[in-house]
Hints:
By secondary structure, the chain is α/β, with parallel strands linked by helices. The chain has helices at residues 41-54, 65-71, 73-86, 121-144, 150-153, 159-168; strands at 2-8, 17-23, 57-63, 94-98, 110-113. α1 (41-54) packs across α4 (121-144) and α2 (65-71) packs across α3. The mean pLDDT is 93.
Amino acid sequence: MEAGTDEAGRGCLAGPVTAAAVLLPEDFNHPLLNDSKQLTEKQRMELKPIIEEAAISFGVSHVHPAEIDKINILNASILAMHRALEQLQPQPVFVLVDGNRFQPYKELPYECMIKGDARFMSIAAASVLAKTYRDLYMQKMDAEFPIYLWKKNKGYPTVEHREAIRSAGPSPYHRKSFKLLPQQLKLEF
């Protein structure tokens, strides 16, 4: 009854930070399942229903830009993981966390692991769900604000995304506490 948890979207300029928590059966294995960053978008979307069907339980949570701006991105990432863990039924007895930062969730023991998504199936599954749910959310937002090319960049700071911010200004989905545009350097003569 170990749950794996991971987040996606921490380094984005726009959209939520999204976390997932997954309880998998002890014998679950899938040859394709790995850290979501090692998979193509197509592979992640193929794995999403497989994970959802095989999981004993899973939860997904978004923390949106206004809340990120109030509590900072690290606290928002941890809050998203806590909210995802709250959705698990039954509750786990132990939590495996991808990365090196976490705050205790209830009284549950936990362990943080850098690159845990490449070592534990439950964390890899959580990484795939967090990434796919966030990507789907960003695609919906792209329909509302196509200028930012979120369908393509998912809110990450690409050149095209920053150019759109420069020309159109930030949207309501941008994180106001983030440096949306790099500082312009001035040459003194």
